[in-house]
Specification:
This protein has about 240 residues and is α/β, with parallel strands linked by helices. The chain has a single domain, classed as 3-Layer(aba) Sandwich (Rossmann fold). It is about 30% helix and about 20% strand. It is built from six helices and nine strands; from the N terminus they run βαβαββααβββαβαβ. The chain has a six-stranded parallel beta sheet with strand order 1-9-8-5-2-3, with helices on one face. Helix 6 links the parallel strand 8 and strand 9. Helix 1 crosses helix 2 and helix 2 packs parallel to helix 3. The longest helix has 23 residues.
Length: about 240
């Protein structure tokens, strides 16, 4: 685990953007493509805009394939649909070809949407290991990541898969990567800022023993890949180190 702590959000985003570019360049050099999993919510919006503007010329974006680590069970045009934010902030500004971005089909029932997305991923990797080059993750103030929420059924899923996950406190279904699928990635990066996340970060990073039912982000531990936390000073304020 690598903890990177920044005084300001802007410094954090700049370093994270350069990190994305470095991983992308390496993946393209090695296998002529970069399999990049985006995170949703509001936190990554500025990062995506930076990549699509300041960093537009620093990577061959025609060789990048975009995926989503989770999705809300709302119509694709809904303001809460993760894919819509990404479409507006990075996909459309970069003129990404439609066959290089894989949205979750939320016109289907949640379980069917999850199964369909799992098939999309399997088909894309075409028999190879389902190992993404980079998975970006956020973290909720209670310690959830992707749509792996506390005390939900997906936390116990040991399969490398995409599943529907009912979140009782939201009274809503989500579609999400399982922790084992995330943990197959070559690189996983958490983007977390703001003092509202400080308590969760302290538990996720420092608890021993861990309690992933309460803090699901503790499940993220790549098998053969790197794990990096990009934190601002407010999110890191309760850490001991």
């Amino acid at each position: 685990m690598n903890l990177l702590i920044y005084k300001t959000k802007s410094e954090l985003l700049k370093d994270l953007a350069e990190y994305v570019i470095t991983i992308g360049e390496k993946a393209i050099a090695e296998k002529d493509c970069f399999n990049f999993v985006l995170t949703g919510g509001n936190s990554p919006k500025d990062l995506y805009s930076m990549l699509a503007t300041e960093y537009r010329e620093k990577l061959d974006w025609t060789k990048v394939f975009f995926f989503f680590g989770d999705e809300r069970n709302v119509p694709p045009g809904h303001a809460d649909y993760n894919g819509l934010m990404a479409k507006k902030s990075i996909i459309d500004p970069l003129n990404v070809a439609s066959d290089h971005v894989f949205f979750v089909d939320t016109t289907l029932a949640p379980a069917d949407a999850a199964s369909a997305y799992a098939k999309i991923i399997t088909d894309h990797f075409n028999g190879a290991e389902l190992t993404f080059d980079l998975i970006l993750l956020g973290m909720g103030d209670e310690g959830h990541t992707a749509s792996l929420f506390p005390y939900t059924t997906a936390l116990a899923n040991k399969e490398v898969n995409v599943v529907a996950n009912y979140v009782e406190k939201l009274a809503a279904d989500r579609i999400t990567f399982t922790a084992p699928l995330i943990n197959k990635a070559k690189n996983v990066a958490f983007l977390v800022f703001g003092e509202g996340k400080a308590d969760a970060i302290k538990h996720v990073v420092e608890d021993d023993p861990k309690n992933p039912d309460l803090y699901p982000s503790q499940l993220i531990d790549p098998v053969d890949g790197g794990l990096t936390f990009f934190l601002d000073s407010e999110a890191a304020k309760l850490l001991n180190n």
